[in-house]
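Schema walk-through. Below, the input block comes first and the output block second. Nothing else is stored per chain. Lengths vary across the set, and this one has 89 residues.
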Amino acid sequence: MRTTLTLDDQIASKLKALAQRSDSSFKATVNATLRRGLVAAGALPRAKPYTTPVFAMGAAAAGLNLDKALAIADKLEDEELARKLAMHK
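--- output ---
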């Protein structure tokens, strides 16, 4: 939502300095500061931390190093491309 807000010069200066220190935009800094203030005042509930479900997928196939996932994907893509080209001959 876009709105006009008049800030005291001292508050604006401190927010700008905070934005520079945190390498964040002025807008993001103002929003984060207001959010913390509202949470502290009890006006907003604390956000639940985001979690990603974890699933056991079993062991990797023999000879596959999952630390090199992009290389594996490239190899599989190359093999599929070669297979499709061979079918069209």
